[in-house]
Amino acid sequence: MTTSETTFAATAAGLVTPVLHWYDEHARDLPWRRPDASAWSVLVSEFMLQQTPVARVLPIHDAWLRQWPTPAALAAEAAGEAVRAWGRLGYPRRALRLHAAAAAITDQHAGRVPSAYDDLRALPGVGDYTAAAVAAFAYGQRQVVLDTNVRRVLARAVAGVEFPARSVTRAERDLGATLLPEDPPTAATWSVAVMELGALVCTADRPRCDGCPVRRLCAWQAAGAPAYDGPPRPAQAYAGTDRQCRGRLLAVLRDAPGAVTRAHLETTWDEPVQRERALGSLVADGLVVATADGRYALP
DNA sequence: GATGCGTGGAC
DNA sequence: TGTCCAAGCAT
């Protein structure tokens, strides 16, 4: 190991204890983190939190768990009810996938959220992050959990750059594995702690470095907090896009008690070509179904 | 690996 | 006000 690699590893290892202590004092009290939270509650939270802020998830998660306290309860419903209950959380395909995951859990895992990473990863809508997160947070396993928060903390504290690469790199996985404490429950706490640090302190915009427990160790701070100089991230347009059009159409169906007419849908979007394309894509995704009488409804 | 996929809050 | 972005996933 070279001198620089030795220094790198020592710096990285020094992050763990301060972050654990910081988490002990500053962790938010979130429903899915409580000791009595079920694995199902954790799984639902992870679906909802994909690309969605905690504040918007809280009320929907609460209502969801009241309505469907178990995977089997959700699996017994029509998928459209899941889409309806999803409300305006965004990315409604997640509701469909969560419903499909509940069905798979009911059919293939006797109604119990699986604990093995590979079983979780095989569920609809569960990728590398969500599988690792549920294994760690619901079952206390030792897993490398890499989300946007963790990746940003490591990019700054260890690599000395403001933002991580566009996609997860081999180096990040190796670093995550190196940092992970040996003891499984401690590893699981570290994973949630470093995520929380990214969410509350080491934020994308205006990080609160004054309150950071590892400021002294941070490579980005040591370098003078240089601005990001990588390729610009493409701005995600929304106004006038198919995504907005889909959102409008689906909102009409969510708010209607049953099927709606094509004429009703047409009032929500002026441009006919785009409207038809969006409606077609919603049907293709399974978020909307055409009824026998030519109307449209949730599945 | 690049795209498409919602929504609303913060500035 | 427009811009950015928030615990990703599937294709």
UniProtKB/TrEMBL annotation:
Presence of keyword DNA damage: yes
Cofactor: [4Fe-4S] cluster
Entry superkingdom: Bacteria
Gene3D superfamilies the record matches: Helix-hairpin-Helix base-excision DNA repair enzymes (C-terminal), Hypothetical protein, domain 2
Ranges for domain HhH-GPD: 48-200
Cross-referenced InterPro entries: DNA_glycosylase, Endonuclease-III-like_CS2, Endouclease-III_FeS-bd_BS, HhH-GPD_domain, HhH_base_excis_C, MIG/MutY
Keyword vocabulary terms for this entry: DNA damage, DNA repair, Glycosidase, Hydrolase, Iron, Iron-sulfur, Metal-binding
CDD domains, alphabetized: ENDO3c (cd00056)
Signal peptide from the UniProt entry: none
Stated family: Belongs to the Nth/MutY family.
Protein name: A/G-specific adenine glycosylase
Organism the protein comes from: Nocardioides vastitatis
